[in-house]
Amino acid sequence: MLEATFYNPEFWKHLSIPFVAGFIGWITNWVAIKLTFKPLEFVGVRPFLGWQGIIPSKATKMAEIFVDKTMYRLGTLDELFRSMEPGKIAEHITKVMDRRLDAYTNEVLFYGHPRVWGVLPQTLKEGVYARVREEMPQLVEALVVDVTESIESLIDFKQMLVTRLEADKQLLNRLFLEAGSEEFRFIVRSGLYFGFLFGLIQLGVWTFYKEWWVLPFFGIVVGYATNWLAINMIFRPLRPIRLGPWTLQGLFLRRQSEVAGVWCGLVTTEIVTLQHIMYEMLHGSRSERAQEMIKGHIRPVADLVMESYGPASRVVVGDETLEEIRESVGEKAVAVSTDPFDHWPFNRERALHAEKLLRERMEGLPPAEFQDLLRPCFQEDELKLILTGAVLGFLAGLAQLVFVFGGFGNG
Fold first, then answer.
1. What are the tens digits of pLDDT across the range 73-103?
2. Cα distance between residue 391 and residue 304, in whole Å
3. Do 373 and 259 contact (CB within 8 A), yes or no?
4. Hey, how many other C-beta atoms are within 10 angstroms of the C-beta on 184?
5. pTM of the full predicted structure?
6. What are the two backbone dihedrals, phi and then psi, of residue 49, each rounded to the nearest 5 degrees?
């Protein structure tokens, strides 16, 4: 009897049902994750015949959610900038600029005002270099203090972040992929487990009720339910619940400390960096005020130069030329303001301080707020993802009916 069953093709066909269901659950979940993030740009014929990853297709909205629901809860721009130690920033700027001051002075005066610079003997020029070098640390320190006090008014922080993530959809994807790497792997694996369990139920039903629609119907159930269960197991329950020797809590919520480390490292090295902050300040929507601030603090260098001419400097140079030199000094200061921040080790060093601030606050977030880090990834068209699983499950169940069991009339 056992041998006859073993060699019976129908036995193997029936036995394949839970394994096929497990495969359906795995493949539908895998496809759902891929469709969330890929492709970065629309592929196909707009508006309906094609696809773009759900996150990239809503880059602006997702970036705004990232700012409103996460960044603003963790720290303001003022707090982040202060955490980077403005005093250290001033020292770094001075150190970098000190090596280039002679060249900058020559560029401004020799090329811009050769008549003024040409009449000075070399000994006096050396005195100008020394005087500028002596005064520059105080000028830079005063400038950085002013920037620190005014940073919120110099930069539109939300616009800075949204613009950055809109322009780099791969980076936007990484915010979710790296924070939820374990959860996305779980979703794919769980499709196999849950699919197999649903397949056992499907096998029981098919054994006694061989209607053509059973396999496609259970394909829908497997594709839909495996996605739904996996997503809910990631975020529910919000708080730990003791159940005998076990503690139940959403998988993502259990990893709060680990996720904080990964996510804050990414944010502070690639999004909210000192380099990006300074670039936005000088080239963003509020750059005019920042540029005037820099000019105002650095223009006094021109007066140091004029002191080298002695008391008769205004007669020798003239008020109009003196004002031109002041303006040239200011313009040069603005032009080279980002140079000190093209220095990866220093940016990384400052990022570690900002990362510490963000991480401490993220680790302290209540579960309901912490889940907002990853939850928007699924909330945007969550139903679409689940229904996609259902459709794929239906097609797989239909294929199983036709190719394994011989079609609609051979149950």
1. 899 999 999 999 999 999 999 999 888 888 8
2. 76
3. yes
4. 22
5. 0.82
6. -90, 80
